[in-house]
Amino acid sequence: MNTIVNYAHRGASRYCPENTMAAFKKSLELGATGIETDVQMTKDGRLVLIHDESVQRTTGQPGEIKDLTYRQITELDAGSWYSSEFAGERIPTLGQLLDWIEPTGMMLNVELKNNMEPYEGMEEKVIAAIRKRGLSQRVLISSFNHYSLVICKRIAPEIRTAILYGENLFEPWKYARSIGASALHPYYKFMNHSMVQQAADQGIIYNPFTINDPAEMRELIRMGVSGIITDYPDRLHELLQGSAAGR
Length: 247
Known about the structure:
phosphoric diester hydrolase activity, GP-PDE domain-containing protein, 9-stranded mixed sheet, GP_PDE_dom, PLC-like_Pdiesterase_TIM-brl
């Protein structure tokens, strides 16, 4: 069986409104074996799943997550912008996703969106939620805020961390090891077969983002990546099934 993790980017975000329970549930139906999601923190300290710092794009309402209470967030419609079929979908909490994913066996990549807003105390809250449900071995914490990854590792050495980046880095596996990270999550254009192999020799894995073209997926599979983050988990599932069948 192919062990590459099929991470659904914000859930099945090309079939459902991103970062909603509908998108997460759909990704499982489409063959995803992992979910990638984004965590922000409300004014009153609740962890909610949304990519942007503002709710404008996905709810049509003004406001920054940091300035809204959880109750205000729950009143927003996070589905109608995508399609009337999803009218009434809400912005979920991290806890809701963790409770749902626990019995599925899926992996979870939690991206801390604290590179624009500091969200003091976010690391502790995310880790507490993961530990509460006994999911430390199935969760990967990633962020563009690498200082935050160091904090996470100090708090919870048992939870793996991943460095997000979107530029060419020199020998990024050495950097990963220096901050205790287990994985590299680059934009897929900034990697090649040699880099994947050199990282693997150092015990560091690659989970690139966001790959939607089947030909590019095939190339990454040949490179030996450990996971692929995609908006189309069904496309990747089909390729992985074919790859496994061809062995």
